[in-house]
Each structure stands twice: as structure tokens, then as C-alpha cells.
Amino acid sequence: MPGRKARRKLIKKQQRKRRRQKHAKERDKLETEAENQRLMQPEYQKWLQEQEEMQEFQRLADERERQLAEESWLRREATAQRQFQMDEAKKRQEQEEVERLQLEQAKERAEREEKQRRQREEEAQKAAKAAAEFDAIMESMDEYLNNPRIEKPPSHLLRVMETHPEERPCEFFSRTNCCRYGHACTFNHRRPMLGRILLIRHFFNHSMLQKRWAHKEYDSAEEHLELTEQDLRHDYDEFFNDAVEELGKFGTIVNFRTVRNTLEHLRGHVFVEYTNERSALRAFTNLQGRYYASKRLNVEFSNLRTWRGAVCGLSLTRKCPKGNGCGYLHLFGNPNNLYNTELEYTSGPRSERRSSQTPTAKTPSWDEHSEHGRNWRWSASPEVELENSKDLGNRGQDLKNTRQRDHHSRSRSDRSSVRSKREHSSSGSSHDERRSKRHHQHRSNSTTPDHQHRSNSTTPQQHNHRQ
């Protein structure tokens, strides 16, 4: 049972509720009476009618706006539907175009693969034909090389290979067998398959033949303090003796010409002419794959017709304005003028006069060559030179020290001779004879290279006679 306080609280709550309900009923009654009184007034009735008309007008306006919005939406929907249909049609057309292109590409790919397959078959047939032709040529060359009864080479070995038969011949290649554009030249380069002249490209290598770009700091330095023309001459003489000794084992050499141009496509080339094609072919086959001074040899046959068209005429008198950068051949002078026949028709029929000038010295046979006596520069691979690199370095250092000692000794002797002349210049006639003898001895020891070259130069007949 609830307590007294709770009961009193509940009773007060109910009383408050009844009072609120009573006040609400009285208020509603008053409002109803007031409303009835306003309804009885004509102004209020007129206002109510205006409000109803305004609400109806607003309803009609809202209905009209709704209809206009719906019509606008329908128009936009129709436009969107048309655009969608156009886009779909465009997509279908693009898809059809893509499918058509894919079909065409697949067809072209199939045709290209078929064409490549036919080309591979044709190339394989050509390669097989070329290999068979090469084997036949090699057999023919071997037969011509080893059969002394065959005097003249077969006609199919005397063919000339052309790079661009439809173009006109390259002027520089026809004259010098060298072209600055090489295989990229658009004119025709004609190379013989067999000949009496061998061209060994970049055979002679020397630092003075390299194109030097001087640094601006050392642009005014004197180059002769490092290397001189005498050093180049000495190195070429050593190279000449070394090369002639090896190349002479394959046959009798008629011409040995080394190019001293500094251009990249001419630098260090060596032309070697033999008396016949058999000797040239023997040298060509034996030099393939060999190395000289750690550098592989690049040997080919040359169809050089005349030296006059290849050699720069002004270089013979040292008046060429381009120097060693000339496009025509500038040649080294061989020691004692050896292997240097006249400059005309080197690959044509030789006359009796030129045959008489050909050296007749006995040339060692290749079969008699001994590997034990081979020079250190010649090898079948570049690794052989590595074993002797230390000895070569010591030899070069000894040669350099010897040259320095000779230079210092000559300078001291010159200074002592000048000092002695000054000291004894006031002496009597007893010293005149001694001074004349010293002067005569000094002149005999200081001959110029030109006098030495003239005194040491001999004709090929004299050289053969001495040998």
C-alpha cells in the first residue's frame, strides 16, 4: 500500500490535471465563441474568401510549374535517349572498325610471316649456295696454291666483287683502294677476289700518325721534345725489316709501300705486291687470323692499277699544302730504297725493264719457317705478347737511356770542342794541324741523314748482288 505522502502527491497531481482540463475547456469555448463572432462579420468572411482564392491560385501555379518541369524532363530524357542511341551506334561502329583492323592486321601478320618464311628459305638457299660456291672457290684456291703445274689462276678466281653495281665507281676507292665512308659509301667499290697486291689496313701503327688534339694549356708546347721525325723514321725502319722478313717467306716481294697519312681511313695502310698471284694468295691465306703487335691483321686483295693516280705528287717533293692530312697517299721511304719499283701499271703486265729491277734474292720457304725463331710481334693470338711485355718495357727504357746518353755526350763533346778552340785560338801554327784534324773528324762524324741515305741507298741489283 502506498504511503500517505505518496497518496497526497497523487491526489495533488490529479487535481492539477482537472484544473488544466477545465482551463482548456474554457479557453476552447472562448475561442469558439470568438470565432463564431468573427464569422458573423462580413470583412472576415471576405478575407477568408480571398485566402481561399489565393490558395487555389497557388495550387494552380504549382500544378502548372510541375507540368512544365515534367515536360522539360521528358524533353531532356528524349534528348538523352537519342544521344545514348547515337553513342551506342558510334561504339558499335568503332567496335566493328577495331574488329576489321584486327582482322586486317592478323592477315598482314600472316602474310608477313609467310613472306619472312619464304625469305628465310631463300636466304638459307642462298647461304647454302654461297657456302657451296665458297667451298668450291677454296678448293680451287687450294688446288691452284698447291699444284705448281697450274701456271695461271682459274678465271672464276679473277672475278671482281662490287658493292653497288648499278652506281658509278667511287673515284677515291678506284685510285687509292680507300674511302673515308667505307661500307656506307653510296658509290660502287670494286674489290678483286684474287690479285698480286695485298692491302693490309692499319698495319703500321705509330703515335705520330695519330690525329692529336692539343690541349689549350699545352698548345704552345714544342712537340719535337717528345717525338721527332727521326723517331718515326727509326720505328718505321724497324717495322719495315720486321714485316719484310715475315712477308718475304710467302714469295718474292716487288713493292712494299706504307702510307703515312693521318686520316683515319688511310693511316698505316701497307701495300705489298708479289711477283705472282700464287705468292699473294699464299700470304693472304697464312695471314688470316694472325696478330702483329697484339693487333689482328686485316688483309685483302687490292686492284690498284697505278701508283701515279694514288700517290700525291706533291708529297714526293714535300710541297703538299695539306700535309699528311691529304686524301691521296703519302708514302714512307723504304730503307735503301728497297721494294720500290716504278710507279706505273703495278698490276698490269710487267715489262722486261721492270722485271730486271725486281729483287732476285732467295726468299725462304714457308715450309722451312721455324716457330722458334719467330719475332715477338708476330703471333696467332694477341696473348703471346703479354709474356714479353716486361722485356719490351726494359728494352724501350734501355733504348731511351741510350739516346739520352748519346745526346748528352754529343752536347758535352761540342761544348768541349768550342772551349778548346777558344783556349787555343791564340796559339801558333803548331796547333793548326791538330785543329784541322779535329775539324775534319767532326765533319766526318756529323753527316746529315740525306748524305747517309744517299751513301746507303743501293739499287735492287746491287742489293741482290751483295746478298
From TrEMBL:
Q: Where are the zinc fingers (C3H1-type)?
A: 165-192
The UniProt keyword set, sorted, is: Metal-binding, Repeat, RNA-binding, Zinc, Zinc-finger
| Basic and acidic residues composition-biased segments | 25-36, 105-126, 365-374, 387-404
Write down what this protein is called. Uncharacterized protein, isoform A
* Residue stretches of biased makeup (Basic residues): 1-24
Q: Which GO terms describe its cellular component?
A: U2AF complex
C3H1-type domain ranges (all copies) = 165-192
Any Pfam family from its record, for instance, is RRM_1
Source domain of life: Eukaryota
Task: Tell me where in this chain the RRM domain is found.
Answer: 196-304
Which PROSITE patterns does this UniProt record tie to the protein? Answer: RRM (PS50102), ZF_C3H1 (PS50103)
Give me the stretches of Polar residues compositional bias.
Answer: 444-467
Q: Where is this region: Disordered?
A: 1-43, 105-127, 346-467
Gene3D superfamilies (alphabetical)? 2.30.30.1190, 3.30.70.330
Signal peptide boundaries: none
**Which InterPro entries does the protein's record reference?**
Nucleotide-bd_a/b_plait_sf (IPR012677), RBD_domain_sf (IPR035979), RRM_dom (IPR000504), U2AF_small (IPR009145), Znf_CCCH (IPR000571), Znf_CCCH_sf (IPR036855)
| GO MF annotation terms | RNA binding; zinc ion binding
